[in-house]
């Protein structure tokens, strides 16, 4: 298995291994600290952390009341990030997110504009119920997620570094929701499906959260350290076999690429960002699981969270009651051969 050349890699192999081992230890500490407060939901915690470790944004989808907000607050604390939360509502305006210009007057009566930063100026932003806001407001957030700056009256203001958005969305086709456009969903590195807790975890939630005191998480890394780990992940070598698996998986999910099942069931498939997301997240997942190099397993385990929001079913497949997840599961089992 040849290794892919990694751009921007002044680190030699020994140094990368040493740095990766240190990162392994840090990630294990982060996991342990989060589990003091968030019970069960290992998959949810893992995928959300993978998005952040890979330097991206995540979309958390689940019914209300599954501790999505609590997860985000906990991650902010544990990762040493400055966090803000915006509750999306139908009357929310772009300026409520980005900030506004206010007019100041000095003692001589001279007037000038001053920019007052909105809540988007945070290192970890929770965008709650993002599908309740109007498309115009959604796109104000999504543009800053893409460009890492905000433009007000022609002037650009950089967002803090790191900058991560964890958005939540209710799956129920509720009144007054605006679905996110496909192009904007693509800006989320992965989609995290939040289900109901397992019985044992739900029992623990009942016992631990209804007493006088609740466990609190503490900070275990700084924002600077998180950025170091994110850079290291981009320098981890990926074997040719894993790169080939990523390419063939992503391409097999697109109609018109010679996969008969996909041609029949998929209206449109994932673009190149899906492959980029798999390259980054597979490395992050290896470290998260305590390994120094990504494997085919990492690719297949991440197929669903990375591809799910980047493809849509054909009408006939929807009519048969298929889901995008079913299609992805089929592609993965075929790839595993």
Automatic annotation (TrEMBL):
Which key words tag this protein in UniProt?
Answer: ATP-binding, Nucleotide-binding
Record's family?
A: Belongs to the MoxR family.
GO molecular function term, any single one? ATP hydrolysis activity
- Give every ATPase AAA-3 domain span: 57-190
By its UniProt entry, which InterPro entries does this protein fall under? ATPase_AAA-3, CbbQ/NirQ/NorQ/GpvN, ChlI/MoxR_AAA_lid, P-loop_NTPase
Query: Which SUPFAM superfamilies does this entry report, sorted A to Z?
Result: P-loop containing nucleoside triphosphate hydrolases
Q: Which domain of life is it from?
A: Bacteria
Record protein name field = MoxR family ATPase
Location of the ChlI/MoxR AAA lid domain: 263-328
